[in-house]
């Protein structure tokens, strides 16, 4: 029993030390990530530059704590930040920005089924071939975040529902790795994505009907 408590104290001390070492850059990344979400909720194109800088920092942080897929995910985020900026700035039929759209329920079911299958395969490979922590959860959050980030760039309103689930699971991952500021950020994210959904819903109702491409309505 004494050995158990000694091991527990040592583990907590190590986690605290690692958290202190990461806290400086993590704080910058958290502030930029929060700015990204607030700007995205408002539909501002400037959310993407904030995302680009934040994800560049997180790419390094996650690699240092062995969340390998999360690190790779943030490399993808950097690319999507550039794509999202261009799409929100020059997308749409009139090339004056992408309108908010909604996809059919059946489309989302297919997307969820395919993404779940891919995440199981990647999780198995990570569990058997790497030293990654929480391989299946890490793979699942990564795969769904890849798809959901694309939905954000395309301004698909249901992206907020995907983020709600992804963020809730991510809280557990980050707390387990001593990323306390990031964990706190994702707790806030879970609340904010609800507001984001309703804000986009209001914006979608008042946007000019003619700006919505007919093909996107039928998705």
TrEMBL record:
Parts forming coiled coils: none
InterPro entries to which the protein is assigned, alphabetical: NMN_transpt_PnuC (IPR006419)
Location in or out of the cell: Cell membrane
Transmembrane intervals: 20-39, 46-65, 109-127, 133-153, 181-200
Topology of the protein relative to the lipid bilayer: Multi-pass membrane protein
Coarse class of the protein's main subcellular location: membrane
Keywords: Cell membrane, Membrane, Transmembrane, Transmembrane helix, Transport
Pfam families, A to Z: NMN_transporter
Purpose of the protein: Required for nicotinamide riboside transport across the inner membrane.
Protein family according to the UniProt entry: Belongs to the nicotinamide ribonucleoside (NR) uptake permease (TC 4.B.1) family.
Family matches, as PANTHER family: NICOTINAMIDE RIBOSIDE TRANSPORTER PNUC
Record-given protein name: Nicotinamide riboside transporter PnuC
């Amino acid at each position: 029993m004494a050995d158990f408590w000694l091991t527990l104290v040592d583990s907590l001390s190590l986690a605290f030390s690692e958290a202190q070492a990461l806290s400086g850059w993590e704080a910058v990344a958290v502030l930029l990530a929060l700015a990204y979400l607030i700007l995205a909720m408002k539909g501002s194109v400037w959310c993407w530059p904030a995302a680009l800088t934040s994800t560049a920092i997180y790419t390094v942080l996650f690699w240092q704590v062995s969340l390998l897929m999360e690190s790779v995910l943030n490399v993808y985020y950097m690319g999507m930040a550039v794509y999202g900026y261009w799409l929100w700035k020059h997308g749409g039929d009139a090339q004056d920005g992408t309108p908010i759209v909604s996809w059919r329920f059946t489309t989302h079911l297919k997307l969820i089924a395919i993404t779940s299958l891919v995440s199981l395969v990647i999780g198995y490979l990570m569990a058997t071939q790497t030293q990654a922590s929480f391989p299946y959860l890490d793979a699942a959050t990564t795969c769904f975040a890849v798809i959901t980030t694309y939905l954000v760039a395309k301004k698909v309103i249901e992206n907020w529902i995907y983020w709600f689930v992804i963020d809730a699971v991510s809280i557990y991952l980050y707390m387990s790795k001593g990323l306390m500021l990031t964990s706190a950020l994702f707790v806030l994210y879970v609340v904010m994505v609800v507001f984001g959904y309703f804000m986009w819903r209001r914006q979608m109702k008042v946007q000019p009907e003619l700006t919505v491409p007919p093909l996107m309505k039928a998705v």
